[in-house]
Amino acid sequence: MNTEPIHIISLGAGVQSSTMALMAAHGEITPMPTAAIFADTQDEPESVYRWLDWLEKELPFPIHRVTRGSLSQQALKMRTTKDGRSFTVTSIPYFTLSKNGDRGKIPHRTCTADYKIAPILKKARELGGIKRGQKTVGVIQWIGISLDEVHRMKPSREKWAKSRWPLIDLRMSRGDCLLWMQKHGYPQPPRSACVYCPYHSDAEWRRLKKEEPLAFERALAFERALAFERACQCQKGLTDNFHSQLFLHRSCVPLDQVDFSTNEDHGQQVMFGNECEGMCGV
Ligand code: SF4
């Protein structure tokens, strides 16, 4: 019986994880993984889905696409507790504006855990034939965190899985990944993240608006739907745990009112460093 753990790639379908997968295909990272797993929130820009279709043909191992359904639909679904408070089952890292004008952030985000980590681990368990209660490592999970994001490294919470960060071992930054892709004649991978992700930097919002207007429109539609749902809850006299308006942009202004026409920085830096598991934006 083969007791060696299998190697799988957590594929975010962005620059770092795509480079890692292609380096494995070239034999520059060993051993050859059993598979890559992409957890689909169903809310990525079209460029990411096109990229996945392309990447699938380049890799000698399969890409398993797994999903828990549409994150945006779940995030808009308001539920009510017995004592009349409304809540959503999954939460996105929105910016908040309280009635007295204080700006903040949602304190506890669950979207990555629910829609990225859980489906990937479920599939990895299946591929590794992990038994209930297994304590020995059966899966080595490659995570595409690069040297410039070293603070995102976190050990696996599962006893049967062990995290590995090949780009850190190779001391490769995101820029090094782009150079590696270029040197091998590959196109530049997209930046992967949900179209409405509040972790987007101003530069990324600007890029989306200019280069992927459909994705930007989807983000606007999501923010409008969110405001509508919350207004309905207020009309019904329901309160929620946040007592604040929710926004996608740090300025706490609806996205369609943020001026992205110049290169002016509105104070929103890339915030994927806050997403410690290294599942989004890589
Ligand atoms: S990309 Fe953003 S919204 Fe989507 S799962 Fe990751 S942190 Fe959540």
What does this structure look like?
It contains eight helices and eleven strands. The strands form three sheets. It has a five-stranded parallel β-sheet, sandwiched between helices. The chain has a three-stranded mixed β-sheet with strand order 4-5-10, with no helix packed on it. Helix 1 (15-25) packs across helix 6 (174-183) and helix 7 packs across helix 8. A hairpin with a 4-residue loop joins strand 4 (79-80) and strand 5. It has helices at 15-25, 46-58, 71-76, 111-128, 166-169, 174-183, 202-211, 213-235, and strands at 6-10, 35-39, 63-66, 79-80, 85-87, 95-98, 103-105, 139-143, 161-164, 239-240, 244-247. The chain has 282 residues and is of the alpha/beta class. 37% of the residues are buried. The radius of gyration is 20 Å and the shape is globular. Bound molecules: iron/sulfur cluster. Iron/sulfur cluster (SF4) binds next to helix 4.
